[in-house]
Specification:
Double-stranded beta-helix, 21% strand, globular, binds fe (ii) ion, AtsK-like, iron, oxidoreductase
Length: 358
């Protein structure tokens, strides 16, 4: 049957739409990055001494559970994304929060695991103030291998614009998908807690972040299985990350470390128990033979990855800041946008306590 007029007009519309998209894409690329001062900086000569243990008290311990300084404003709107984790918030400026408000932010992040703040001026307040705010939640980790901001090694820069394929290479170049569940820098002795991540340039569609609740992942297990896991410890390693950076001629600012952490940890403020393993950095279970370790970790990674009923997808709009608790969640970038589209984001990663066994 010959195509009808309706079919034909649909084809024309599709052609026009794809031409418009191409044009938008070209315009976006030609424009250059919106925040060139935050482009990733790699200096192979940059070296830092080993990370030292420091005294840590979670500021959320002192927070008012009612959170009047965070959520008390007349314009504040709160929208829970799912029952277990994720809350979208508008009508609050993180940059304007008092010390008490920031403590409440830490508490709310622990309770909801991931907070998505819209319309923030945070990206425009300058590196010093951004660092000062993030320091509320602990000493900021200087990443050993990733791009940082020139003069401000505390920033971890996430950047793609088609000229750099390192993200895919890191995940493995022959994979079906690029989902890579992980908790940030879990190889450190003092692992990160309340973590801030904000977008500077994002694709029109896609480029979101998946999060999974490690608390709910733990809660789903049978009491018998939970009992078996409690008391176990796992090795978390920075070695692969450092080897990858060296092989590409990138910086290794500190020699890679390995830490042993409890497989189930307890949050110092909420007391919740959470699985603490992640495919990105956990390598083996202490005291298990290789096959036993691989078997158990594979089960846990599958369980975490498949639990869509305790996942969220955080989306970005200009001005979005996502705050998450790295002690209670794992996350993965979503690599679903075209290679030549720019995505530029920055993370500040305060380190919290040495994990408390459950
Ligand atoms: Fe990450």
């Amino acid at each position: 049957m010959a195509p009808s007029v309706a079919d034909h007009s649909q084809n024309t519309t599709e052609t026009v739409t794809s031409e418009v998209l191409k044009l938008q894409l070209n315009n976006a690329q030609n424009k250059g990055p919106s925040y060139p001062a935050y482009l990733p900086h790699f200096d192979v000569n940059e070296k830092f001494p080993p990370t030292e243990i420091f005294e840590f008290t979670d500021p959320a311990l002192k927070a008012d559970p009612k959170k009047p300084n965070l959520l008390g404003g007349a314009d504040v709107k709160v929208n829970h994304l799912t029952p277990y984790l994720g809350t979208e918030i508008s009508g609050v400026q993180i940059s304007q929060l008092s010390k008490e408000g920031l403590a409440e932010l830490g508490l709310y992040t622990a309770e909801r695991k991931v907070l998505v703040f819209r319309d923030q001026d945070f990206k425009d307040i300058g590196p010093e103030r951004q660092i000062e705010i993030a320091k509320t939640f602990g000493k900021i980790q200087i990443h050993p291998t990733s791009g940082n901001v020139k003069g401000y090694p505390e920033f971890h820069v996430v950047y793609r614009d088609g000229s750099d394929s390192s993200f895919r290479e890191y995940n493995g170049s022959n994979r079906i998908n690029n989902t890579q569940w992980h908790s940030d820098i879990s190889y450190e002795k003092q692992t990160p807690g309340t973590t801030l991540f904000w977008i500077l340039d994002q694709p029109e569609t896609g480029g979101s972040t998946l999060f999974s609740s490690q608390v709910e992942a733990y809660n789903r297990l049978s009491p018998e299985f939970q009992k078996r896991l409690e008391g176990l410890k796992a090795v978390h390693s920075a070695v692969y990350q450092a080897d990858f950076a060296r092989a590409r001629g990138g910086p290794v600012r500190r020699e890679p470390v390995e830490s042993i952490h409890p497989l189930v940890r307890r949050h110092p403020v909420t007391g919740e128990k959470a699985l603490y393993v992640n495919q990105g950095f956990t390598r083996s279970i202490v005291g298990f033979k290789d096959e036993e370790s691989e078997y158990l970790l594979k089960f846990l990674y599958d369980h975490i990855a498949k639990g869509a009923d305790f996942h969220i997808r955080a989306t970005y709009q200009p001005g979005t800041v996502v705050v998450w608790d790295n002690r209670l969640t794992v996350h993965s970038a979503v690599d679903d946008f075209a290679d030549n589209v720019r995505r530029h984001a920055v993370r500040l990663t305060p380190q919290a306590e040495i994990p408390i066994p459950a």
